[in-house]
User: Fold this.
Amino acid sequence: MKPLNSIYSLTSELKIIISNKNDFKWAMKYKENVNSKCKLYLQPEWSKKDSILPIIIDFVTKNPQWTISLQAHKYMNIP
Assistant:
């Protein structure tokens, strides 16, 4: 789904759910549209966390403007 162009200047956070390597391209594309103060987050898709989290860590290491976002309640088995 494509975000509305009118929201980019107002955006304070951009969170991308990562389920495969193509999602990084999507993230970088939309990063260019948001303002410079926007916080950038990458979050592993829960069902693929074991395989995708190491790839996210590597990406964030190389692209420090991004931060990893985790759903702590899922790691603690809280519904």
Summary: DSSP finds three helices and three strands in the chain. The mean pLDDT is 92. The first helix runs from residue 22 to 31.
